[in-house]
Specification:
Blueprint (H helix, E strand, L loop, with lengths): L1 E2 L2 H11 L3 E5 L3 H14 L3 E5 L8 H15 L3 E9 L2 H9 L4 E4 L6 H16 L4 E6 L10 H6 L14 H8 L3 E4 L16 H10 L4 E3 L7 H9 L2 E6 L1 H16 L8 H4 L1 H18 L8
Parallel strand pairs: 1-4, 2-3, 2-9, 3-4, 4-5, 5-6, 6-7, 7-8, 8-9
Helix pairs in contact: 2-3, 2-12, 4-5, 5-7, 10-12
Bound molecules: zinc ion.
The site of zinc ion has 5 residues, from loops.
Length: 293
């Protein structure tokens, strides 16, 4: 269909109670898998890069592949930068044709988070680019546990979003979407997370903008469904895609006596493994064929 803004995709998802999948896709093969999965399921999709995917002139290669995929796709596609640390990188991405950025100042103080987000929002809005911010802080599950994230204790460094802060934050920062911390964590869970749905409900009741769940990989399906039912309009999936890709590629290479063979051939099975993960997430999030629901 077309390249669309992040804001446009999420407003539609919020009003119709499904979540748009955001897939972190590091290379052209992953970009292609995300587009194909979304087309097969007739779902909107968000393609995301993080800073290491874009070093040097990789930003041009990445944006070229993502834009080409979006423009020729039969479904709406947004292209975004995930977890930007600086306004400079956001500007470079806007100039390369991204339609959304997430500025992550969630580790800063409340006032600093507002100031940094507002600066980026002003810079991006005049370029027609949407801005996601994070209030509270979604920690790292790799070294801690989902349980630790739930309590917001040390080890995961998660800080839950305070519902009372939401309206002030959104109005002053002018963000278009808000990532909330309600019990998920980034990376791989060592124990399953338990989301604070009551908190999410309080946030959704007051939030002027659609809500985003980071750390979607490994979150139990019933909790994902509950989160969507209570206002989550975008869910980020990274770790499960990377695992499907790398694990399958490793198995493929282990079974190959001569490693001097075509990379495109080696990547066939990993591609299918990613496609399977992405299609199952789309169905879980309810973003497939939303116009018929
Ligand atoms: Zn994240």
């Amino acid at each position: 269909m077309s390249l669309v803004s992040l804001k446009e995709l999420l407003q539609e998802a919020r009003s119709r109670r499904y979540a748009v999948p955001m897939f972190d896709v590091s290379n052209a093969t992953m970009i292609r898998a995300a587009i194909e999965a979304a087309e097969l399921e007739n779902s909107p999709v968000i393609l995301a890069a993080i800073e290491p995917d874009l070093v040097g002139n990789m930003i041009d290669y990445w944006a070229g592949a993502a834009r080409m995929g979006a423009i020729s796709a039969g479904i709406p596609v947004a292209i975004m930068l995930d977890h930007a640390a600086t306004a400079e990188l956001c500007i470079r991405c806007a100039e390369a044709g991204f339609t959304g950025v997430m500025i992550d100042a969630s580790a800063e103080s409340f006032e600093q988070n507002i100031a940094i987000t507002r600066q980026v929002a002003d810079l991006m809005h005049r370029r027609g680019v949407s801005v996601e911010a994070e209030l509270g802080h979604v920690g790292d599950g790799q070294s801690g546990s989902g349980e630790g994230a739930l309590t917001g204790q040390a080890g995961t460094h998660s800080v839950f979003t305070e519902p009372a802060d939401v309206v002030t934050f959104v109005e002053r920062s002018r963000c278009d979407a808000l990532a909330v911390s309600i019990g998920t964590a980034h990376g791989v869970y060592t124990t399953a997370p338990r989301l604070d749905i009551a908190r999410l409900q309080q946030i959704e009741e007051v939030s002027p903008v659609p809500l985003v769940l980071h750390g979607g990989s490994g979150t139990p399906e019933d909790q994902i469904r509950a989160a969507i039912a209570h206002g989550i309009a975008k869910i980020n999936i990274c770790s499960e895609i990377m695992y499907a890709w790398h694990h399958t590629l490793l198995e493929e290479l282990r079974q190959t006596p001569n490693l001097s063979y075509w990379d495109a051939t080696a990547c066939l099975a990993p591609y299918q493994a990613m496609l399977k993960v992405m299609r199952s997430k789309i169905r879980l999030f309810g973003s497939n064929r939303p116009e018929t629901e």
